[in-house]
Amino acid sequence: MAVHETLILHVQDDKFFVESRDPGTKEVLVIDRLSQEIILEENGTTIPAGASRKPVHGLMGIIKLLRGPYLVVITKKEKVGEINGQVVWKVAGTETIPYKKTDLHLNEEQKQDNKTYESMVQYAMECNTFYFSTTFDLTHSLQRLYNTSPEFLQMPLFERADQRYVWNGHMLRELIAQPELAKFILPVMVGFVSIRIGIVNRQRFDYVVISRRSCLRAGTRFYMRGLDEVGQAANFVETEQIVQYNGSRASFVQTRGSIPLFWSQRPNLKYKPVIQISESQNHLDAFKRHFDDQVVNYGNQVLINLIDHKGVEDRLEKMFAKTVYESANSMMRYESFDFHHECRKMRWDRLSILMDRLAKDQEHFAYFLMDANNELVTHQTGVFRTNCMDCLDRTNVVQSLLAGRALQDQLLKMGVLKPGERFDDAVNATFLSTFKNTWADNADACSRQYAGTGALKTDFTRTGKRTRFGLVRDGVNSLIRYYMNNFVDGYRQDAIDLLLGNYEIEEGEGVVRPSPLRKSRDAKFMLLPAIAMVAFSMLLISVLIPSAELHLQIAYILFWLAATGVCIVLMGVFGTEFVDQPKLSQAKIKSD
Predict the structure, then answer these.
(1) Is the pLDDT of residue 348 over 60?
(2) Distance between CA atoms of residues 97 and 54, nearest Å
(3) pTM for the full model?
(4) Per-residue CA distances from 27 to 40, 62, 65, 186 (Å)
(5) N or C: more exposed end of the chain, with fewer CB within 10 A?
(6) Which residues lie across from 56 on neighbouring strands?
(7) Which helix (H) or strand (E) holds 576?
(8) What is the pLDDT of residues 123-154, one digit of tens each?
(9) What separation, in Å, do the N-terminal and C-terminal C-alpha atoms of the chain show?
(10) Pick from 192, 206, 197: which is nearest to 430 by CA?
(11) Where do the DSSP E strands lie in 133-176?
């Protein structure tokens, strides 16, 4: 069942009217701004003449803040392309409209807190990339859709969606409670969608890459690591590569996700915070829950672990390998590859070692292929689950190589390529550029959503070579990540938790119970940075302004240098108190 595509929002003092303008329908959704009642007028209703009106492209849902409920609507959209003739859209603008016309019922502190919550919602809307379709189920792969029943395909779009990838599920809960509102309930996904034209051997086809980011353990790089108690992994992303040619459709699915153990890595002003592996939680139990779910959804698993075999990452690698062995799961194989060691000194050609190890698995797993008559030709029996520390940079490089190998076989099977030909030959340079840039764009999108910057190592993905310019670019992105992870990510994590309903604002917050936004800081939070700045300023003055007596100038320089150094050392010792910590969902975050 499709969702209404053309909507007009009429705003009156006491009601919202969401009018469908799709051909053959007169449905109007009426939301009472005072009682908060939601009703459906199936045969239309009289809309007051004085109501303001604006076109909207869908309802993100309803979110409750201190001021009360807010209606969140999609005001702008951009066409990404079509999959099987059905349009996919990217959200380009949203608006958050309060039910209550004033905030006079709040005290001054609550008003300030509500503004902070409003800014969090706006930040979450602007800094995550949302996609939707009113007719096509973006949350399922082509193979899963093929394996469903006709009855499933007739279900409302939200009801049949994979809830792992529906990011506005919490905001839609009041609408979902009324099944008759199904045509107004629009599931929205976060991740990446690219739909581009490919031409190989003068044959034209659609090349599609979709990354579906899970909302079940979503968060930022250092505040969301590993597994939770029910086996959900942080930064879990399902990526599907689709080829559409002359009515035939092929699909190849891969997954990525945080190392499936109980571990954390909280920011503390250090470039690489200490990795903490829990000793009190049952790793094996949660590990089994995670992979039981993965096997049900995807079949056999090859676990590609790209982290270092020495230094801070080594303990995690050994723990991962040990847990795989103890799980004794015959549908799982562990493949560890020390990416940084094997590819040191820019020897990225050595990735062929890993690809050779995975060749038999990829041949066995195959891919999904359906011919022009909707008949199944082949199906995918397993996936590669790839991870590095962040499941971003090294992970995306390897996933793009596996995707390229699958694409080669798919184009041969579909007849775009002849035996002996390759899609990455020089004669196909234009499409090769499309392929590489699509995977680099995918890397950047996934990285921004988790780490706050574009991905590292994308020069290799885009060009097939590791370059010195790419190293410089990676250095700049690493510095930006350091700043984001230490001084912005607490706010980002709060914005995500508020959007997903991991934290729900209760009535009377700030009056009946303390506001979590107003947690006091220790005195050293202000004193140490201030003293360090004063000491450093005096150090510069002592160096730049000559003194009549050299020994006094040297004494001043040494004193202020020591004062600056002591402050910096103390800030390092108490590093966790200087970073931007999340405030809203501490219980959830501490489960790391």
Answers:
(1) yes
(2) 13
(3) 0.92
(4) 7, 19, 29, 15
(5) N
(6) 7
(7) none
(8) 999 988 999 999 999 999 999 999 999 899 88
(9) 39
(10) 197
(11) none
